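Milestone M4 deliverable, item 7.
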Amino acid sequence: MNLICSTLAGVALLAVLPHAAHAKPIAFSQGTTIMAEYGAGTMKEAQVFYAPKYYLSLGPGYLELESDIDHRRREITYARVNYLAKRWNMEAAQANVFVWGGAGQAYVSEINDHQFTGNAGAQIDYETRRVYSSLKTDWYGAADFSHRIDTLQLGLAPYKHDYDTLATWVVVQARRYTGEIHDGTEWALLLRLFKRGGWIEAGVTDDGKLQAMAMVNF
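Output delivered:
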């Protein structure tokens, strides 16, 4: 834990954040993004988004949450629209603000029922070819539950990369769940490999559990 905190502090002091290094709900116009994530046994998610415009994408998603406090489970299927609210293109960096909203249906295990569910969230990222950070918040609510997943990622690449070369990132992640899903902040140290339109990342949390994600753009 001390090593993770030290790494986090060191990356934050660099004060510069990365390009093409973070999962985004919109990759490029007329492109499709497929993402899947396994979050330490607590969260599983899959999403498919098509972008008719560079600032807009839409598609279905699936989220499964299982509480490690009392073993309640949510199985949420939804449709979502993502919007690029703001982009800053700088000489050697890029920053983005995304917002989204959607609706679907959730299975609520403790009452063995399905409920209408709303979804809303936002993401901000700022990145170069060497250092990046992002902050994402994602909310899901229904008659009998309200959950929010807040995720902060800070990454450092040991060398500059181009679109056609393999990028290697060391990423520190802090994630917090609301709604009695996980007690406290979950920390993870990840290795990310990225080239062209695809990437994979994997690592462990401070509890020694697997955290992994895969993404492809085409």
